[in-house]
Amino acid sequence: MIHKCLFPVAGYGTRFLPATKSMPKEMLPIVNKPLVQYGVEEAIEAGMTTCAMVTGRGKRSIADHFDISYELEHQISGTGKEVYLDSIRNVLDKGIFTMVRQREMKGLGHAILTGEALIGSDPFGVVLSDDLCLNDGPGVLAQMAELYRQFRCSIVAIQEVPPEEVNKYGVIAGESLKDGLYRVDKMVEKPDPKDAPSNLAIIGRYILTPDIFDILRETPPGANGEVQLTDALQTQAQQGCVMAYRFQGRRFDCGSVPGFVEATNFVYENHYRRD
């Protein structure tokens, strides 16, 4: 039912300077695979084979990654090194990749709106590559796609975080429909811990209905002077329905150095060495 996924990949990655001065943070490798490829694989597994990238200046290597490198293919053809390209070849065989540039960094909401030309009037997934989600069963987007079939509304992925860390996230409150599933009443972007409605934090997985674009157009700048997707989703929740889902799996905050190192160690011990 959902065939498109949007990847906002235009950010500067300032927490990883100087590495990200000339290298997109989304291309930083977790062992031997860039962060953005993990997200694309998750989307394709969920049936979202049209991957729309909202890029920016200095992000050309992302487009190159999701293309054929004829010189490299020629050099390693017929050698044992070809096996190292299996995962990206699989992605290229199954995925369709489109790109648009976000000319100004005005927040996640603005990035989503920039991708409207690639998405059109269809419901779509959103993956923030900073959040690496891993599990042994269906991926987070696949879990959320199943929920969309039932509720036909926007869905955000959430997890519990320590109360003192809620100021790093969008936070939700709402009616619990069953274990791990909420109908959202309130969403606040990066609240002060004493003002937070809960400790249920939104992480970088969404399914959005296309009316979000019209709402974003009317959403004024919020926290940090940026157009916040959380503010638009709050409007959508008031006008209709937004669900929040406590997903199954493990999430790593790869937008921070400690989270990136933790993810690298976990993947090396549990996936790379096992393979």
> For this structure, what is the CATH homologous superfamily?
Spore Coat Polysaccharide Biosynthesis Protein SpsA, Chain A
Envelope shape: globular
Number of strands: 13
CATH architecture: Alpha-Beta Complex
Quaternary organization = single chain
Looking at CATH, which topology would you report? Spore Coat Polysaccharide Biosynthesis Protein SpsA, Chain A
Radius of gyration, in Å, reads 18 Å
State the major sheet. 5 strands, mixed, barrel
Q: Which structural class fits the helix and strand makeup?
A: alpha/beta
Overall average residue pLDDT? 91
Describe this structure in words.
The protein contains ten helices and 13 strands. The protein is an alpha/beta fold. The chain has one domain: Alpha-Beta Complex (Spore Coat Polysaccharide Biosynthesis Protein SpsA, Chain A), CATH 3.90.550.10. Strands 8-11-9-10-12 form a five-stranded mixed beta barrel. A two-stranded antiparallel ribbon has the order 2-3. The protein has a two-stranded antiparallel sheet with strand order 7-13. The protein is globular, with a radius of gyration of 18 Å. The protein starts with a strand and ends with a helix. The mean pLDDT is 91.
Concise overview:
The chain is of the alpha/beta class. 32% of the residues lie in helices and 26% in strands.
What keywords describe this structure?
single chain; 275 residues; alpha/beta; Spore Coat Polysaccharide Biosynthesis Protein SpsA, Chain A; 10 helices; 13 strands; globular
Task: Give the secondary structure arrangement, pairings included.
Layout: E1 4-8, E2 29-30, E3 33-34, H1 35-45, E4 50-55, H2 60-65, H3 70-76, H4 86-94, E5 96-101, H5 108-114, H6 116-119, E6 124-127, E7 131-134, H7 140-151, E8 154-160, E9 170-178, E10 181-189, E11 200-208, H8 212-217, H9 229-239, E12 242-246, E13 250-253, H10 257-272
Parallel strand pairs: 1-4, 1-6, 4-5, 8-12
Antiparallel strand pairs: 2-3, 6-11, 7-13, 8-11, 9-10, 9-11, 10-12
